[in-house]
From TrEMBL:
<feature type="transmembrane region" description="Helical">
    <location>
        <begin position="6"/>
        <end position="26"/>
    </location>
</feature>
<keyword id="KW-0812">Transmembrane</keyword>
<keyword id="KW-0472">Membrane</keyword>
<dbReference type="InterPro" id="IPR004714">
    <property type="entry name" value="Cyt_oxidase_maturation_cbb3"/>
</dbReference>
<dbReference type="Pfam" id="PF03597">
    <property type="entry name" value="FixS"/>
</dbReference>
<keyword id="KW-1133">Transmembrane helix</keyword>
<protein>
    <submittedName>
        <fullName>Cbb3-type cytochrome oxidase maturation protein</fullName>
    </submittedName>
</protein>
Amino acid sequence: MDILYLIIPLSVLLVLAVVAALWWAVHSGQFENMEPEGERILHDS
């Protein structure tokens, strides 16, 4: 039962870290204009 007092806060912190990283990626433009990257491998360099 004592381990739950460690695991639950750590899992909440992990979820908050993942949400913060996703929020940063979305708002910093990491997912903008993804179509050229998908087409880039189809063209010869």
